[in-house]
């Protein structure tokens, strides 16, 4: 049976682009690995943040629409994006968030401790210590590699029909149920990042898409051959996958699972060095070739953004 290694990327709507860069690079210390545009709306950025190379399992992507309507987090969405940090680093992160005046709560589930806070658009983010997963080699804005975010620990999913979502996780994505407790079911994949998925067992009311909500969650396929197998498998299971769509840095197939969450299956290759060297990732505005003739106009319309250090206590 097909099994995904875990989360490939998570894509969300946010408000201001500079605020978005300041939070994910300036506060969390992630690398802006790709600066491109929404291929369906070229006046809007598509920003990708991850570890030093933007490995699958580390990538969060954003469409920043300035002054856009705020969404409501709810059923049919990723409720919380969970980042893995190295063991013994939560104290560092507590001090860092305090020094940057970002309020957080300490919560726990399945015997793990989470630092929980919101990004500037209201997306829910958590940090959890995990031994598994390679250490990030990217140090930025006062976050040393020994405390750097490794990538996704996983996510909390909120479903309008949690039994159906759970069925898809087990029988389509090939995740393994490992625990159930306090209204949450925990699944794991065989990967070492983006590999722990918690699902609220209580059915939630529908969320509303908008700023501060996740648009979709993408799951990893090893290569194009496996990707095609996934597409057929999803279709045979009675869902309605799209055709394969070229997203430049991976190929994508989308389907909405019956609990309302938009799922994508995305290929690990070709990755972000397809059009920029590893040293230069995220430093140029990259456009697909069909937009190159309009580059000047597109650059004029996009707001200026800058990756900048915010400091914070070290
Ligand atoms: Zn995607």
The spatial strand order of the largest sheet comes to: 2-3-4-1-13-16-15-14
What's the helix count? 5
Main sheet properties? 8 strands, mixed
Looking at the structure, the CATH topology is: 2,3-Dihydroxybiphenyl 1,2-Dioxygenase, domain 1
Overall morphology = globular
The helix/strand series, from N terminus to C terminus, equals EHEEEEHEEEEHEEEEHEEEH
Unreliable stretches, pLDDT < 50, 5 or more residues?
Answer: none
CATH superfamily: 2,3-Dihydroxybiphenyl 1,2-Dioxygenase, domain 1
Strand proportion: 35-45%
Question: Keywords for this structure?
Answer:
single chain; about 325 residues; 2,3-Dihydroxybiphenyl 1,2-Dioxygenase, domain 1; 5 helices; binds zinc ion
In a few lines, what is going on in this structure?
By secondary structure, the chain is of the alpha+beta class. 16% of the residues lie in helices and 35% in strands. It has five helices and 16 strands.
């Amino acid at each position: 049976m097909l099994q995904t290694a875990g989360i490939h990327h998570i894509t969300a709507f946010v408000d201001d682009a500079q605020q978005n860069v300041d939070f994910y690079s300036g506060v969390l210390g992630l690398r802006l690995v790709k600066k491109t545009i929404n291929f369906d709306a070229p006046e809007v950025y598509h920003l990708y943040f991850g570890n030093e190379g933007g490995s699958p399992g580390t990538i969060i992507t954003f469409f920043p629409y300035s002054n856009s309507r705020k969404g409501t987090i709810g059923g049919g969405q990723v409720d919380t994006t969970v980042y893995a940090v190295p063991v013994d680093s939560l104290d560092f992160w507590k001090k860092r968030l305090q020094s940057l005046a970002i309020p957080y709560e300490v919560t726990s589930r399945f015997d793990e401790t989470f630092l929980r806070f919101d990004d500037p658009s209201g997306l829910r983010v958590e940090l959890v210590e995990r031994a598994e997963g390679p250490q990030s080699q990217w140090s930025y804005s006062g976050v040393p590699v020994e405390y750097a975010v490794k990538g996704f620990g996983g996510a909390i999913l909120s479903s309008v029909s949690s039994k159906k979502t759970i069925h898809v996780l087990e029988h389509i994505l090939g995740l393994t149920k490992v625990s159930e407790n306090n209204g949450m079911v925990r699944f794991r994949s065989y990967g070492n990042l983006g590999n722990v998925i918690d699902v609220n067992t209580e059915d939630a009311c529908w969320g509303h898409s908008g700023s501060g909500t996740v648009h979709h969650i993408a799951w990893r396929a090893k290569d194009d051959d496996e990707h095609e197998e996934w597409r057929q498998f999803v279709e045979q299971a009675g869902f309605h996958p799209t055709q394969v769509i070229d997203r430049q840095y991976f190929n994508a197939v989308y389907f909405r699972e019956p609990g309302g969450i938009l799922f994508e299956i995305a290929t690990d290759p070709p990755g972000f060095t397809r059009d920029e060297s590893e040293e230069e990732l995220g430093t140029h505005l990259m456009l697909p070739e069909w937009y190159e003739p309009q580059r000047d106009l597109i650059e004029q319309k996009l707001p200026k953004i800058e990756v900048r250090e915010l400091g914070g206590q070290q």
